[in-house]
Specification:
Layout (H helix, E strand, L loop, with lengths): L8 H18 L3 H7 L4 H9 L18 H14 L1 H20 L2 H13 L4 E4 L15 E5 L2 E12 L6 E7 L11 E7 L5 E6 L10 E11 L12 H37 L1 E2 L2 E2 L4 H29 L5 H26 L9 H8 L2 H4 L4 H12 L2 H6 L5
Parallel strand pairs: 1-4
Antiparallel strand pairs: 2-3, 3-7, 4-5, 6-7, 8-9
Helix pairs in contact: 1-4, 4-5, 4-7, 4-8, 5-6, 5-7, 7-8, 7-9, 7-10, 8-9, 9-10, 9-12
Length: 394
């Protein structure tokens, strides 16, 4: 059985439901929604009604509790319909996973049910002006005080930060003398906390309806109950675990965007005529389509394998990095080929490929740039045990 069809009957029904939602309620309206530029309240509510904000929340706390291969496939299907919707789910799901995997029982009971329903929305506050890929360079600090901590710092590129209600914020805390590197912690901060504010919005080349903001923390009070897992100094390890899920989600979303670009290219090539025939009869176009389809399937399979490995508990940091790297680069190449097939029409906003072409670069820089992924993979290769996991030659 293919990794792409290794689902239970219940999981297949979930995927069928998502396909119907995308086909009926999303795809026919994307061009209008992009043109109008209004936040798609109805579609977000519909996703909440389908339980999609609870994909990474265990059933015991009101979520769908999807296996990671199913989660990845849902992300692909949503992104193939409209990548903006996948953007609403990605970082939120990572926050859900962080709470479910590392939270205290009190934090799980308090936060997960509302996150699963979409009544609360999560966002990751990681990047700073001087700390992007190197998260150990963050300057945001949580200073201990009698009530818990006082949080101060500046976070940028916070996806969904404008509409989020719960911020997972990485900050420095005092480290034990014996463990000086244990000085980074994760806090679960309500956005309406005194001292937390949205300082500005970043305007991007695409994804205008996915808000990307700057968050300021100015002596914001946080209690010990806001410290993820109740463990100071564990934040970096907790975050890296969550980012594995995030990278699989990014890879799956890139596959979905690429699938949409291939579909647009095939449709256009079957309608556009040149030299007496539709252009899909020309060998040059056929060769390009063959490369696009091959890249798409390879990216989908690698993403599915990363999701399967992670779901079984196997070490998957290298594999999830490979999936994110390969899928995002494949997506960029497929979208570029799709634009070439469209010719001048691909540059016109009336055609979907113009939007997809602007959206694709996000995936090579989001959730850790692709150059960072290559460094992580290369370092893993230097360890025989890590290389052996993928049966790589020594």
């Amino acid at each position: 059985m293919s990794r792409l069809d290794d689902f239970t009957d219940e999981e297949r029904e979930i995927l069928s439901t998502v396909r119907r939602f995308v086909a009926r309620e999303v795809r026919p309206h994307v061009a209008r929604l992009e043109r109008e530029g209004a936040y798609p309240e109805a579609l977000v509510a519909a996703m909440a009604g389908l339980g999609l904000f609870g994909m990474a929340v265990p059933e015991a706390h009101g979520g769908l509790g999807l296996r990671l291969p199913v989660f990845a496939r849902v992300m692909e299907l949503i992104a193939a319909g409209w990548t903006t919707l996948a953007g609403y789910l990605n970082s939120h799901s990572t926050v859900c996973h962080l709470v479910a995997a590392h939270g205290t029982e009190e934090q799980k009971a308090r936060l997960l049910p509302a996150l699963a329903e979409g009544r609360e929305r999560g966002a990751l506050c990681l990047t700073e002006p001087a700390a992007g890929s190197d998260l150990r360079a963050i300057e945001t600090r949580a200073v201990p005080c009698p009530e818990g901590y006082r949080l101060s710092g500046r976070k940028i590129f916070v996806t969904n930060g404008g509409r989020a209600t719960l911020l997972a914020m990485l900050a420095r805390t005092p480290a034990p003398a014996a463990e000086p590197k244990r000085d980074i912690s994760l806090f679960l901060v309500a956005k309406n906390t005194d001292g937390i504010s949205v300082a500005g919005t970043f305007h991007k080349m695409a994804y205008d309806l996915v808000d990307t903001v700057e968050i300021l923390a100015e002596d914001a009070p946080v209690s010990p109950a806001d410290l993820l897992g109740g463990r100071a100094g564990a934040g970096l390890g907790q975050l890296l675990d969550g980012l594995e899920l995030g990278r699989i989600a990014i890879a799956a979303s890139a596959v979905g965007l690429a699938a949409s670009a291939l579909a647009e290219a095939r449709r256009y090539a079957s309608e556009r005529r040149a030299f007496g025939v539709t252009i899909d009869q020309h060998q040059a176009i056929q060769l390009r389509l063959a490369d696009m389809a091959t890249r798409l399937v390879a990216a989908r399979l690698l993403t599915a394998e990363a999701a399967r490995a992670r779901d079984t508990g196997a070490r998957a940091d290298m594999l999830s990095g490979m999936a994110k790297l390969f899928a995002s680069e494949a997506c960029l190449a497929i979208v570029d080929d799709a634009l070439r097939i469209h010719g001048g029409y691909g540059y016109i906003a009336d055609y979907a490929i113009e939007r997809l072409y602007r959206e694709a670069p996000l995936y090579i820089v989001g959730e850790g740039t692709n150059d960072i992924q290559k460094l992580v993979i290369a370092r893993r290769l230097s360890d025989p045990a890590d290389a052996a996991i993928m049966d790589l030659p020594q």
